[in-house]
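Tokens for chain A. Residues wanted.
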């Protein structure tokens, strides 16, 4: 069905998207086509973390000069686009992902494009406290501290609902708590900002994806509570959430299989996608810059759809 291909809303705006041609999907009944891959692997990689040895001075006077960011789920999709936005604005970026082979290849490409010494790849599953912690420590050791965390890694698999909760919600909580240890101004950190990738499904129900919806509502609630917690505590850390609508990524393929026992609602999901439209990863990722740099933004939920961006206001229950 054509809806799962690129739409008129989508343009090839940068190299990131050129490297990530959208995968067509025979939705609602079938399987997706294989996606394009990046260039061949570098066999010289030996450890789970790697970074180039020299740094560039190209970044002077950029909005994020001198800042270090950590992005989870950085190898593909929205996380990869966020990584590029951060690099384009002068930050150094630690890319965390379970996909080691493509992560290393991506890091090599980013090194060529944005300058040496700007990136670090760490194989880390956000379900693993040990791996996540080691990646933060390697980042601090390599770049001298952490200023920005994008808790972005996520999956859509209603069949594997416990794993979905473990990655989408528990992974965000784990990353946030680890970042607070590193960034907390009351504990010698330099403060900073956390951006949690939720979803439009964190603001309203996606009926075919009840567990995914629950995790994303959880991310929105956790973000708002931690933002208020941090402000009240004087930690110097802001926490915001990005809530994209439908975005053409790998996660947006093979939808009937991902819906599992709810696959009979695939047609209804198609109708919602047709109604709301889709956006590109770069259209989503560009919005992190405002959430990162605007120091008045804390506890915000920013909805991004083909209609544009909208800061969500929540009802007061007091
Ligand atoms: N694609 C969409 O329509 C939307 C996606 N989102 C959210 O955006 C985030 C990113 O999604 P996409 O870019 O679409 O997905 P994607 O599937 O294109 O990319 C996800 C990346 O996360 C990595 N990853 C998966 N599990 C991981 C784990 N346990 N630990 C570390 N890395 C892991 C993957 O290897 C991959 O590089 C997710 O949280 C998703 O829920 C939100 C709204 C819409
Ligand atoms: C099935 C693919 C899921 C892709 C992963 C996502 O996170 C995409 C989420 C995108 C949109 C979610 C929309 C949820 C909307 C509901 O709250 C609905 O109530 C909104 C109805 C709006 C309308 O009909 O105008």
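Reply:
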């Amino acid at each position: 069905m054509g809806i799962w291909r690129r739409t008129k809303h989508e343009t090839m705006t940068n190299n990131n998207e050129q490297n990530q041609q959208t995968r067509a999907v025979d939705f609602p009944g079938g399987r997706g086509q294989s996606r394009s891959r990046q260039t061949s692997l570098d066999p010289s990689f030996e450890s789970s973390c790697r970074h180039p040895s020299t740094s560039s001075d190209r970044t002077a006077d950029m909005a994020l000069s001198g800042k270090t960011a950590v992005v989870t789920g950085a190898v593909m999709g929205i996380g990869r686009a966020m990584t590029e936005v951060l690099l384009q604005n002068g930050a150094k970026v630690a890319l965390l992902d379970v996909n080691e082979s493509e992560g290393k290849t991506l890091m090599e490409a980013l090194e060529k494009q944005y300058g040496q010494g700007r990136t670090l790849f760490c194989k880390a599953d956000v379900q693993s406290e040990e791996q996540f912690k080691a990646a933060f420590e390697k980042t601090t050791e390599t770049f001298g501290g952490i200023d920005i965390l994008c808790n972005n890694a996520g999956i859509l698999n209603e069949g594997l609902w416990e794993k979905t909760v473990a990655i989408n919600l528990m992974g965000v909580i784990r990353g946030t708590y680890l970042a607070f240890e590193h960034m907390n101004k009351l504990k010698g950190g330099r403060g900073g900002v956390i951006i949690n990738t939720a979803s439009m499904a964190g603001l309203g129900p996606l009926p075919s994806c009840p567990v995914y919806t629950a995790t994303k509502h959880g991310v929105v609630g956790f973000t708002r509570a931690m933002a208020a917690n941090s402000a009240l505590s004087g930690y110097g850390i802001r926490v915001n959430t990005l809530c994209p609508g439908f975005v053409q990524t790998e996660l947006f393929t093979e939808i009937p299989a991902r819906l599992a026992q709810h696959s009979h609602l695939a047609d209804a999901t198609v109708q919602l996608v047709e109604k709301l439209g889709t956006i590109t990863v770069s259209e989503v990722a560009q919005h992190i810059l405002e959430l990162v740099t605007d120091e008045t933004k804390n506890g915000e939920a920013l909805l991004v759809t083909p209609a544009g961006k909208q800061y969500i206001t929540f009802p007061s229950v007091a």
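The two ends are 47 Å apart (CA to CA). The pocket of NAI (ligand 1) is lined by residues 72-73, 75-79, 97-99, 125-127, 152-155, 167, 197, 199, 244, 246-247, 249-252 (CB under 6 Å).
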